[in-house]
Design brief:
The protein is mainly alpha-helical and about 160 residues long. It contains seven helices and two strands; from the N terminus they run ααααβααβα. The protein has one domain. It has helices at about 10-45, 55-60, 65-85, 90-95, 110-115, 135-140, 155-160, and strands spanning about 95-100, 145. It has a two-stranded antiparallel ribbon. Helix 1 crosses helix 3 and helix 3 crosses helix 5.
Length: about 160
């Protein structure tokens, strides 16, 4: 699939997908926090890392390492979805897909570059200032976000088209 068949996504469509994904990210962060708390409880229960007097598990995990862990979870979420299917849940709902300009899926490297440089969606402002409709993260990762037809929005179709030959 070439970019002639699917036009590049507009700023408003991208923002719609970001807002939708925000709800998903909140759920992912809640799950990640629960996993960190469960690990803290397990380590305390096994005596590997007991709590100090007056401390609780939430206090223990609140720190730089925990913040970095959450960033890795968030970047990993986006990179995984973008590399595997080209779409997050929000992008699927708005019929958007990130891809290479030849229509193939992006690499892990591109997905990681894109997730780190997306800058909380602010990189999408660049879409407003150019006929190319490329966000900062698209330029840096050398990819594009396109608007799909309802038929093309089916994951199974893209999976077949991008299967190894």
């Amino acid at each position: 699939m070439s970019n002639e068949q699917f036009p590049r996504a507009s700023f408003l469509l991208r923002i719609g997908a970001i807002l939708y994904d925000l709800l998903v990210i909140i759920a992912v962060i809640m799950f990640a926090a629960g996993a960190a708390l469960a690990l803290s409880v397990l380590l305390d229960t096994l005596g590997v890392w007991p709590l100090t007097e007056g401390a609780d598990h939430a206090t223990r995990i609140n720190g730089v390492v925990y913040q970095l862990y959450l960033l890795v979870v968030i970047f990993g979420f986006y990179a995984l979805f973008w590399h595997r299917g080209g779409q997050t849940l929000g992008m699927k709902a708005w019929r958007l897909r990130v891809q290479n300009t030849d229509g193939t899926r992006i690499s892990w490297k591109q997905a990681l570059i894109r997730s780190v440089t997306a800058m909380l969606g602010f990189g999408n402002i660049a879409v407003l200032f150019g006929a190319e409709k490329l966000a900062l993260q698209d330029r840096l990762a050398k990819c594009e976000v396109v608007r799909l037809t309802p038929e093309a929005n089916q994951f199974k179709n893209w999976k077949k088209q991008n299967a190894p030959k």
